[in-house]
Amino acid sequence: xxxxxxxxxxxxxxxxxxxxxxxxxxxxxxxxxxxxxxxxxxxxxxxxxxxxxxxxxxxxxxxxxxxxxxxxxxxxxxxxxxxxxxxxxxxxxxxxxxxxxxxxxxxxxxxxxxx
Length: 115
Hints:
CATH class: Mainly Alpha
Number of domains: 1
Number of strands: 2
Structural class: mainly alpha
CATH topology: Multidrug-efflux Transporter Regulator, Chain: A, Domain 2
Strand order of the largest sheet: 1-2
Oligomer: single chain
Helix content: 40-55%
Strand content: under 5%
CATH architecture: Orthogonal Bundle
């Protein structure tokens, strides 16, 4: 899949996908022979996860930790409980009201949280 298809499927803009790759929140995309980014269903699922977490108000550091938990298939339920307690302790979550991110983009807001 190309970045446009992944953006549409995940609900995350191409610009934010580039940003998440740059900061290491998601893995770097593969490249085609022509140098275009290529993605698979695993990337779409990861971006959907990030998108939902952002909508719930999780900061990027917490999302990074949640992704590590989600992607660690060798974890035990005790690990999840212990690490989850640390994530919950990062402070109160403030859900993003519906439409706020769209309005931010339409106003030219460049804050990554509005992506």
